[in-house]
Design a protein that fits this description.
Elements (H helix, E strand, L loop, with lengths): L4 E4 L9 H16 L3 E4 L13 H12 L22 H13 L3 E5 L6 E5 L6 E6 L3 E6 L6 E4 L7 H11 L4 E5 L6 H11 L5 E5 L2 E2 L17 H7 L3 H9 L14 H7 L10 E2 L2 H13 L3 H14 L7 H11 L8 H10 L7 H9 L3 H13 L5 H15 L4 H12 L7 H8 L1 H16 L1
Parallel strand pairs: 1-2, 8-9, 10-11
Antiparallel strand pairs: 3-4, 4-7, 5-6
Helix pairs in contact: 1-8, 4-5, 7-9, 10-11, 14-15, 14-16, 14-18, 15-17, 16-18
The structure holds glutamic acid.
Glutamic acid binds next to strand 8.
């Protein structure tokens, strides 16, 4: 097999959408799996739709996701330039060649010397190709009208430029969205007009929402741009893992896979034909899994900016690291740390119903809580000393197990469940804990 060369060819018309990221990733994975080249080409011929900074932000987000490339506008390469607007002479040259050979014709704009160039669709042809995802597809030339390859302003249309570029950039395989299936016969006729080898196409399936509808950029119920995930504190490795499963499935029964494993396993035979469901819960699960794998130190650095933005005053590095270790397991995405923090330190303390019932039903609760309060008054509020105070309370009141721990926990946190109590209380601070205990006592004595 010749050296694999694939490309991701975005139009710099906006931010990096999940669908584009998947196209980029599948091309990247295919290239890396086959030790080939991955190229980025900017298709900027739709001038009205180009947005300033569009190219840079796309590349930046791809880098963040963990992709790298061999040739691109920013890196250069043997087959550049890599922006279509810098290749206009080339398109003109090949449009002229078709004109000279009678395979295309001029179409003058009324009252002007400017003309567009239209491709003459051959009669009676069938355009067949073997799609890597969908198998054999075929189109009849009678269903395709003569189409413009070069507009009267000298700018090529997508279907023409893409062929010239893929040919001269020696592209061997093309993975792209299924909206391009119907463009493919037009592209094939251009390859044939020049006698060039046609790359192998693979049109990936739609990404759909819960209602089986194509993800629409306007649908606000699903976050769809890579930059937004980044801002929310999703980890790039998690998104990479999740996106790789949108239309591909590994041959092994495991879905949490590192980038290297995915590259190793990425096999174009396992691209799926069925639409891929954008499963938000699965993304959350994968992200949560990756967050749990962060070391304590990594997690501290991961959550720090979110807390800083939220205006949290860090009492000390030790305080932050205690807070981090307390909330690490529950944090599903970075920005959530703020909710967890607020929930933890919330001013309007209250007791959940089942918890309140528990302490009301247990006759020793009140004395346990009171004794615990009396003992913590005089101590330095550190986890070990708090732990000792709980134990001592048990001895003094003559309770143990649930009857000891639950009243202490419920009176100070309002819940029967939660992270390690002494650590948590020490973070809350003595005054808050005593205020909560007083409130609980007032409820029990009422
Ligand atoms: N610029 C096209 C797009 O963004 C590229 C399509 C292709 O890969 O051929 O959809």
């Amino acid at each position: 097999m010749k050296k694999v060369r694939v490309r991701y060819a975005p139009s710099p018309t906006g931010l990096l959408h999940i669908g584009n990221a998947r196209t980029a990733m599948f091309n990247y994975l295919f290239a890396r799996h086959h030790k080939g080249d991955f190229i980025i080409r900017i298709e900027d011929t739709d001038i009205a739709r180009n947005v300033k900074g569009g190219e840079a932000s796309q590349l930046e987000n791809l880098k963040w996701l963990g992709l790298d490339w061999d040739e691109s506008p920013d890196k250069g390469g043997l087959y550049g330039p890599y922006r279509q607007l810098e290749r206009l002479d080339l398109y003109k040259k090949y449009a002229n060649d078709l004109l000279e050979r009678g395979l295309a014709y001029k179409e003058y704009k009324e009252g002007s010397d400017n003309y567009a160039v239209r491709f003459k669709v051959p009669k009676g042809q069938t355009y067949c190709f073997n799609d890597m995802v969908r198998g054999s597809l075929s189109f009849e030339s009678k269903d395709i009208e003569d189409w413009i390859i070069l507009k009267d302003n000298g700018i090529p249309t997508y279907n023409f430029a893409v062929v010239i570029d893929d040919h001269f950039m020696k592209i061997t395989h093309v993975f792209r969205g299924e909206e391009h299936i119907t463009n493919t016969p037009k592209q094939i006729m251009v390859y044939q007009a020049f006698g060039w080898e046609i790359p192998i196409f693979g049109h990936m399936t739609l990404i759909v929402n819960e209602d089986k509808k194509k993800l629409s950029k306007r649908d606000r119920s699903i976050v769809q741009f890579i930059g937004q995930y980044r801002d929310l504190g999703y980890l790039p490795q998690a998104l990479f893992n999740f996106i790789s499963l949108l239309g591909w499935s590994p041959s092994i029964n495991e879905e949490i896979l590192s980038q290297d494993q995915i590259i190793e396993l990425f096999d174009s035979d396992r691209l799926t034909k069925a639409p891929s469901f954008f499963d938000v819960d699965k993304l959350t699960f994968i992200n949560h899994t990756y967050i749990k794998k962060l070391s304590d130190e990594e997690f501290v650095e991961f959550i720090r900016p979110f807390l800083v933005n939220h205006g949290v005053k860090m009492k000390s590095e030790e305080w932050l690291s205690d807070l981090a270790s307390l909330l690490h397991d529950r944090c599903e995405y970075g920005a959530q740390i703020v909710e967890l923090y607020d929930e933890f330190f919330k001013a309007d303390f209250d007791i959940e119903d089942e918890a309140l019932n528990f302490i009301k039903e247990e006759t020793t609760s009140l004395s346990t809580i009171k004794q615990f309060k009396a003992l913590i008054r005089g101590i330095n509020f550190e986890p070990q000393l708090i732990q000792d105070a709980i134990k001592q309370t048990g001895k003094d009141v003559g309770v143990k197990g649930k009857n000891l721990y639950m009243p202490c926990r419920i009176a100070t946190t309002g819940s029967m469940h939660g992270p390690e109590l002494p650590k948590m209380l020490s973070l809350l601070g003595k005054q808050t804990v005593i205020d909560r205990i007083n409130y609980t006592i007032s409820l029990l004595e009422a």
